[in-house]
Amino acid sequence: MIIVPSQVGLKSGDSGFEVTILKHFLMQYGYLGYTDSTNDQKHQGARSIDLQHETFNELIETGVKQYQEFNQLNTTGVLDKDTVRLMLQPRCGVIDIQAKKEGKVMDEKEEMTLAARIAPNIASVSKWNKFNLTYSIRNYTTGIDISQESQDMAIAYGLEQWANVVPFEFTRLDQPADLNFIFCRLRHNYHRGNTTCPTDFTGVGGQVAHAFFPLSGEAHFDDDETWVDTPDESQFNRDLYAAAVHEIGHLLGLNHSQSPDSIMYATHQNGKRTLTEDAISDIKNLYSS
Ligand SMILES: [Zn+2]
Ligand SMILES: [Zn+2]
Question: Collapsing DSSP states into helix, strand and coil, what is residue 67?
């Protein structure tokens, strides 16, 4: 079941299950305000949708406007066609860091709080304190459209892109490592720690992968997706090379970009496999200090 808002024209004052789905979506990606990292309600909210009928209130309207602003759409506050089209795209599950909060740029402390919220059980720092990192491919997709060798190559390719601009050295291990790549479905656990991942996958479409900021070192790929090693245009295939580059960006500490061209833009796009200038400059800045 893909739980993504799809009703074009939904607006303030409307009510019903579609509004509930919209609220869930906005909450999941950080557009309904901040919650305390110790408050698990957000995660509860992201986990299940009650069959209740919400009303499209001011808070939801503000959330829609923030989503539109972050994604450089017209800020109508209404679920117009462009907004629904974007919401329906396959995407990364990492929260969209809001560059602005009530008109001001988020300070570092607020970003840390957000990072803590995404990986609530792991002490949050935003970068690795070493350049020698180990990695481990803990399992492979059960899909038959990509070989295991090709999955190894996709992860190695993703790591290499970042190592080309910051002097990381990645060493592969057969045991849990600094960076762990895991295919999982629906409700799933963190690979390490045996606690439940705060975000469920929802089958084909919607979220296709998510990863956690340092020092968590976990990247989860939805095994219900059809992963491939070709950058083809099929709307049902997911390019593992593209997803690997993007998710490794999070593993190394980068947030989502507002620019649709950026490798760190949340929407998954087959064939988008190379670092963009903004990401290169962001990762260099992060590791130069
Ligand atoms: Zn992402
Ligand atoms: Zn997960």
Answer: helix
C-alpha dist (Å) from residue 91 to 116, 203, 231: 21, 13, 16
- Residue reference for tokens 């979506």: 25
- CB 236 within 8 Å of CB 265: no
Per this entry, what is the length of the chain?
Answer: 289
- Which of 1-5, 219-223, 260-264, 276-280 bottoms out in mean pLDDT, i.e. has the lowest? 1-5
Residue 279 Cα to ligand 2 midpoint, Å, equals 23
- Please name which ligand lies nearest the alpha carbon of 183: 2
CA 103–ligand 2 middle distance (angstroms): 31
| DSSP β-bridge partners for residue 16 | 54
Element (H, E) at 54: strand 54-55
Per-residue pLDDT tens over the stretch 163-205: 999 999 999 999 999 999 999 999 999 887 778 998 899 899 9
- Structural domains in the chain, sorted by start: 15-88 (no CATH), 132-288 (3.40.390.10)
At 122, list the tokens. Answer: 């792991």
For residues 155 and 47, what is the distance between their CA atoms, to the nearest angstrom? 28
Burial of 226 (0-12, 13-18, 19+ CB in 10 A): middle
Q: Between helices 58-70 and 17-28, what is the axis angle to 10°?
A: 50
The bound ligand whose nearest atom lies closest to the alpha carbon of 254 is 1
Residue at 62: amino acid letter: T
Tokens of 267: 């929407």
Tell whether the model's pLDDT for residue 127 goes beyond 70.
yes
Sign for the CA dihedral angle at 54, 57, 62, 67 comes to positive
